[in-house]
Amino acid sequence: MFSLLRVAIPLMALVASAAAETYPAKPIRIVVAYTPAGTTDILARAIGQKLTEAWGQPVIIDNRPGANGNIGTEYAAKSTPDGYTLLMTTAAPHGINPGLYRKLGFDAVKDFAGISLVATVPNVLVVNNTLPVKDVRELIAYLRANPGKLNFGSPGYGSTGHMSVELFMAMTGTKMAHIPYKGDAGVLADLMGGQIMLSLSNMPAYTPQIKAGRVRALAVSTAKRSPAAPEIPTMAEAGVPGYVTVAWFGLLAPAKTPRDIINKLSAETARILKMPDVYTRLADLGAEPVGSSAAEFDAHIKSEIVKWAKVIKDANVELQ
Amino acid sequence: MFSGVFDHLMLGFTVALSMQNLLYCFLGCFLGTVIGVLPGIGPVATIAMLLPITFNLPPIPALIMLAGIYYGASYGGSTTAILVNLPGESSSVVTCIDGYQMGRQGRAGPALAIAAMGSFFAGCVGTILIALFGPPLAELAFEFGAAEYFSMMVLGLVAAVVLASGSLIKAIGMIIVGLLGGIVGTDVNSGIARYSFGVSELSDGIGFVSVAMGMFGFGEIISNLGQTAETKSIEVSQVHTLMPTIDDIKTAIGPTVRGTLLGTIFGILPGSHTVIASFSSYTLEKKLAKDPSRFGKGAIEGVAGPESANNAAAQTSFIPLLTLGIPTGAVMALMVGAMTIQGIAPGPQVMTQKPDLFWGMIASMWIGNLMLVILNLPLIGMWVQFLKIPYRILFPSILLFIAIGAYSINNSEFDVYLAAFFGFFGYYAAKWGCEAAPMILGFVLGPLMEENLRRAMLISRGDPSVFFTRPISCGQLLVAFALLLMVVLPQFQKKREILAEADD
After folding, report:
1. Domain boundary among A181, A213, A238
2. In chain A, N or C terminus with fewer CB closer than 10 Å?
3. Whole-prediction pTM
């Protein structure tokens, strides 16, 4: 028995490393739990294209949208863990949803192994031009003088846009009414039309209108100013110290995927994100490339889940 | 102002007429026609599949091609609707009603030709409108809030009642079935899944494409199989005329102009209202007709109006995208993605910073419409031949395309089963004399109506008077009420007929 193990262990190691050496031997599929041409999809395609160039195997993007990203995520969680099915995830399925849904078809931590945190996107606090406030301090004063009067829009119940405002209200002791939409386009149209007055959602959708002066940006949600719009102050600078929310995108594999395949993917992803053309493409999107290690990404997911669960509890957001 | 537009259009045509751009424009229109003809495979899936290819193209040809796919599809969508009662695109659902009846009477050729000509006219008008009044028209959309959308849906549903050619009670019943089906899915305000029974595929609602393809295509095949061999062969042998007569064209001019106008308005409003545009146009034509009883039995107005409306809407839905950077529907959202991939941030600055792109696209749309009509008119002869394919080959191929189309929406087998389910439902509904069109409209409008009703009530803090204090909303409700009166009160109906006769 003992001798058998002595043979078997090195043999298993040999098989595993052989798997990484020959990987990928067939096309790789990246599941995207959102519709094509959204930020998640564009990032997955950008990475996929470079993986194809590096390894000579096609990378197929498989869009399985719906239910706040839960459908595609559940699908990826149940795929064969052989390195040929990956998932490009976001702060919803691997940050907010575990705390928001009573029942999920996947375990965001146990069912997945992180490959790399690909990019982060700031949220931006924008208001309708007719709202008589010039900065966040004036906004807070206005909200305190008119509690519950203002309407804010979000791209959906449980989105980072929704939760970011909940966190803002909890930290500043203010109150606004939530008007949910289906996506940022609807929010933007009604924000410009004055049907709603405020939004705090993923910045790329709002940048052109901010630059054209059609809506007014008061702050970005990240710890540092965004290189895409350095003139907009951070929330901390603008008067809400400690306020940080980030929309992020990362690559995952099903939990039991061989470790050395994950490491290989992780190293390659980090290398791709340093390429100048990829950097430019992401910057054009308003996203900042990261390219973390697998372990760093795992830790990031865990901290995000804890953080959003606390926001959901503090803000008394209704569970689903 | 107009001389400025002329200079801009010159620039646009210079860009659009370059060899490369002409080629991609043709490619887009051709692909669009093909996917329009194929049931279920819509522009959304096609553009999504082709997006990666556009990575390696310069921005202008890439966007010209993608735009061509979109309006090309709305051109081609009527073909299968007329030939085999299968809407190639959701916007062709209404075309099925009278287009297919025309086909059964051996007038598939004229129906196809009128659809193509109406679409061409609408496309040209749409393009000119974008060029002349794009920016101010886009501003108009801001006047539309949740209350206005809700009232518009009410008007649409009332119109659906008018649309029914059979029993009023059955039409209302089918609308309610549609509304109930549309309620399935995640509630936008609370995020809670309703009537999904724990099936995660149902948590985003029942796909409209599966329902439409099932009810029309699948259902039609089943009922055809139930017929005897002789009745089938009669239908096919009756195909004789290919081109419409002068009378046909005279009858179609009015509906085409009115349909174009309606489509233009609906296209600008956010929310992909090409379906509503074509439904509204049908209702309007039926109301204006001297003899509304011809509708549902092969009235050419029922083809000309809706087809012009959906193509005009397809054209003008580019206005909010190009002038403001706001996508009005799924296809336009993909166009935003395509622009972003090319490093162009869609927004009001595109017009001033990239005039070659903006005006080049507008000019290419006009060229594309011309290409489409040249492409489609000679094809009519070929499409009509299509009807001579024996049913043992035609039916399995249609079934296959429905299955592929349903699968391609979300890459999910579930949608294929859904289409099959609605096929049986559609078959029995037809046997009971219940029409599919009102149900489809209820299905599309139901969720939108609920979303906007609740949004309007949230914004007004529960005060329902917003629907009457806002002028646009109030006006639409009044029109809906007037329409309802016409249908409900038989005396009024009679009086209207007498009045119409007195006018002559």
Report:
1. A238
2. N
3. 0.77
